[in-house]
Design goal:
Helix content: 40-55%
Number of helices: 19
Distance between the termini: 65 Å
Domain CdaR GGDEF-like: 279-400
Strand content: 5-15%
Domain Purine catabolism PurC-like: 5-120
Radius of gyration: 28 Å
Strand order of the largest sheet: 1-5-4-3-2
Pfam families: GGDEF_2 (PF17853), HTH_30 (PF13556), PucR (PF07905)
Family: Belongs to the CdaR family.
Domain PucR C-terminal helix-turn-helix: 455-512
Oligomer: single chain
Length: 514
């Protein structure tokens, strides 16, 4: 296929910005990237698609174009993240002799990619051949209606090793066979923490699995998918590398299709949130949009707010992360509200505690790839009707704001926490919390460490049992006289009386601050 032929396809709406005399170049593939220096991930003859999110001036334009020219790509095609392609990039392409195209504003990258892949299949046929035989076979499987699972199984057969597509939380999207028990977390950690990719992860039984990123232009590694396959990293320039690279490109295409469908749902959710925020929402309009989003309220509904603080393109990353954390327990749709991602989540047979635990487990896995960023989560209480949606969303966003005051890479506050002493604790600056805790519990912690005792555990159990001597002694499996001695020792070390209610409250708050 020549660039000239591609530019004459009406429904793609391609506009030539530079290199009008170079349109006889052949297009031998397509790649999407938003890296500032993507050369090592590109092949000669590819049409490079970019949303220009990397662009911040003439210097970046020069570096990007130089990398494309060195890789020998056919042309550059800009997307619609910036409505008007920057003049310095057009000039850099013209000076370097690189054709530059602009995609129609209503055309997605996935539509252009699909058209190019289909055209290459039609042009070259189905016969295998190097270097594009593998691509044609795999693309033909996907473009002609085959499932992503079938494509992965095909690659696994050609590699003669198991192969999986996975999310950054360790969730298997599709695979050629079941993933070994416990491998998901190790693979996710290897993918998220590797300084360079591809990488490898040793399994509990000594076998080695390799990881390979699906999209080099993902906004953040925690929002990306990756490939996992048995064995060491594929040999550079070998046939297996070609298969893995082409599989990654096709998985990225399939994910872009899924994201296109989600964008439609996201617009409906945006409309619903806009209605609720305006105060003019009528019940039929709310119910209609909930129905369009397949959100049922009869089994309970809650709202979740999430932010990825300190990350580039934080809103985009937050939406992708929240979508992922809700799967597969409660698949839904998230959208950006300010710098937060917000989702309405039907419980559908799960409890709020189960859903929260599921999200926190996924977020804990993502910690390995956060770097200096943080994930803060707010979860509302549960409602069974659509009338309280506005307050539900506000509760989740307020809870997430309180979660910002927490410590650690992942911090979460639930609706139950908002209505308890936990929200007050979260609002206290961290240094003040540490000081308060140390003054009350420091003497006990030091004594326990020096004498191998359990005074802190004894105190906590005593307060949890509402000061009941018998219940506390029973839980600790000690005689009441032993308990009496321990509590007296606690009072001596702290100078506090456990008979006074306000002293007990102080101890309880200090324990909750641990």
């Amino acid at each position: 296929m020549r660039l000239r032929d591609l530019c004459q396809v009406d429904h793609l709406g391609l506009k030539v910005l530079s290199g009008h005399d170079l349109l006889d170049r052949r297009v031998r593939g397509v790649a999407t990237t938003d890296l500032i220096e993507p050369g090592r991930f590109l092949k000669a003859g590819e049409l490079v698609l970019t949303e220009l999110t990397w662009h911040d001036g003439p210097e970046s334009a020069g570096r990007f174009v130089a990398a494309l020219v060195e890789a020998g790509v056919a042309a550059l095609c800009s997307g619609t993240a910036l409505k008007v392609p920057p003049a310095d990039l057009i000039d850099a392409c013209a000076d370097a002799g690189l054709p530059m195209l602009a995609l129609g504003v209503d055309v997605s990258f996935s539509a252009l990619t699909e058209y190019v892949l289909r055209a290459l299949i039609d042009e070259f046929g189905s016969a295998p051949g190097r270097p594009y035989g593998s691509r044609r076979r795999l693309a033909s499987t996907l473009v002609d209606g085959g499932s992503l699972s079938k494509v992965v199984t095909t690659v696994a057969g050609e590699l003669d090793v198991p192969c999986w597509v996975m999310s950054a939380t360790g969730r298997v999207v599709v695979g050629s066979q079941p993933l070994p028990a416990g491998a998901g977390g190790r693979l996710a950690h290897a993918f998220l923490s590797a300084r360079f990719l591809p990488g490898t992860a040793a399994q509990a039984d000594g076998t080695v699995l390799s990881v390979f990123p699906v999209s080099k232009g993902a906004p953040h590694r925690i929002a990306n998918w990756f490939l996992a396959y048995a064995g060491e990293q594929v040999r550079a320039g070998g046939e297996h590398e070609d298969l893995i690279v082409e599989l990654a490109a096709l998985v990225a295409l399939e994910r872009s299709r899924l994201e296109a469908a989600q964008r439609i749902e996201r617009r409906v959710l945006d409309q619903l949130l806009g209605l609720l925020a305006s105060g003019d929402a009528n019940l039929p309009g709310v119910v209609s949009r909930l129905h369009t989003l397949h959100i049922e309220t009869e089994h309970g509904l809650l709202a979740v707010a999430l932010a990825v603080e300190g990350a580039d393109r934080a809103e985009e990353v937050g939406v992708a992360v929240l979508d992922e954390l809700l799967r597969p327990l409660a698949p839904g749709v998230a959208t950006a509200v300010g710098r937060e991602a917000v989702a309405l989540v039907p419980l559908a047979g799960n409890t709020a505690a189960e859903l929260t635990a599921h999200m926190l487990a996924g977020a804990a896995t993502l910690e390995a790839g956060l770097g200096q960023a943080r994930i803060t989560i707010g979860v509302s209480s549960v409602t069974t009707g659509p009338a309280a949606l506005s307050s539900l969303i506000e509760e989740a966003r307020h809870a997430r704001t309180l979660a910002e005051l927490g410590e650690g890479r992942v911090s979460a506050i639930t609706g139950a926490d908002v209505s308890s002493h936990r929200s007050l604790i979260a609002a206290i600056p961290g240094e003040l919390r540490r000081s308060f805790r140390t003054r009350l519990l420091g003497p006990l912690e030091e004594y326990d460490a020096a004498h191998q005792t359990d005074l802190v555990e004894t105190l906590e159990t005593f307060l949890e049992e509402s000061g009941s001597w018998a219940a506390t002694a029973d839980r600790l499996h000690v005689h009441v006289n032993t308990l009496r001695y321990r509590l007296k020792r606690i009072e001596e070390l702290t100078g506090r009386s456990l008979n006074a209610l306000d002293e007990r409250v102080d101890f309880l708050l200090a324990l909750r601050m641990r």
